[in-house]
Write a structure and sequence with these properties.
alpha/beta, D-Maltodextrin-Binding Protein, domain 2, 2 domains, 11 helices, 11 strands
């Protein structure tokens, strides 16, 4: 059967042209909005692995240097817990963020964050800690024990550790979440838990008094460390200025001391592509607690 053609009338042609022009205007407006995004202060968030006082003491001097080097202002944003941090990150509240690889990858999908910097010296590596005088010597002895972890979603300290123990040794632990890396180490050091999960970088940031009461009995595989990422709305010139400032900071003794404090002793440029190999951990997390 033949159907009659429905040619555009002069009126419908004009309407189509108006719609196309409007789409072009809106697209260009969106691009301009990104290029002209210049807030009073760029929101720079850091995953709350450490207690707020320690986090601010370590990161605020770094942001003060960024302000001096770039001429832009940066507001250090902290969250009371990991869940609040992740909710804000996935809503695009932050302009720059220091986050775990899986937190970054999730935000990259939802908000178009882009990895720009990482530490080129120290990888992310999960650890299992016990008390210095503990009778626990081997991973196989941990089967079924209650263990302190920061949060269920903590990538290195919880998910890397639990998956490694399960797949490499057939060991499962009963997780108890104490809401921070500092709390894990303190709980194990004082006997609150016999075993706990952490990462090398936060372990090294603990005081000597705490570390002296702990012993590391296992390390996981090493993966790419926490990146610093920028939201796509941030002007490319601003992002480049931040990258250059971090690089310059690493070339002075005082700057290296500041970077050591935030576990980024040797910053190098990075890209989102470098983290794609860890996406299966994001899928595992989305599948639910049973998969973690």
């Amino acid at each position: 059967m033949l159907y009659p053609r429905n040619p555009l009338t002069p009126g419908s042609k004009q309407a189509l042209v108006r719609r196309l022009l409007l789409a072009c205007v809106l697209l260009q407006a969106g691009i301009a909005a990104r290029a002209d995004y210049l807030p009073d202060a760029y929101a720079f968030a850091v995953v709350p692995q450490l207690d707020p006082r320690t986090l601010h003491a370590r990161w605020r001097p770094v942001l003060a240097y960024l302000e001096q080097a770039t001429g832009y202002r940066f507001s250090l944003r902290s969250s009371a817990d990991i869940e609040t941090f992740e909710r804000r990150l996935n809503s695009g509240d932050y302009d720059f963020v220091y986050a775990s690889p899986t937190q970054f990858l999730t935000a990259a999908r939802l908000q178009d964050y882009r990895a720009i910097l990482r530490d080129g010296q120290q990888a992310l590596q999960g650890i299992v800690v016990v008390g210095r005088d503990s009778e626990l010597e081997r991973v196989e002895q941990l089967q079924g024990l209650e263990a302190a972890f920061p949060t269920a979603s903590a990538f290195g300290a919880t998910r890397l550790v639990r998956e490694d123990l399960r797949t490499s040794f057939g060991v499962t632990l009963q997780p108890r979440y104490v809401r921070g890396h500092d709390s894990v180490y303190l709980q194990v050091a004082t006997g609150g838990f016999r075993v706990g999960g952490g990462v090398v970088s936060t372990y090294l940031q603990q005081s000597a008094a705490v570390r002296e009461r702990l012993r590391v009995i296992h390390r996981t595989q090493a993966v790419k460390p926490h990146p610093i990422a920028a939201h796509a709305r941030v002007n490319a010139g601003v992002v480049s200025g931040v990258v250059r400032a971090f690089m310059a900071l690493s070339r002075t003794s005082d700057g290296k001391a500041l970077l050591d404090a935030i576990a980024m002793a040797a910053p190098v440029t990075t890209s989102t592509a470098e983290y794609r190999g860890l996406e299966h951990y994001v899928e595992t997390a989305a599948a639910g607690p049973a998969s973690r």
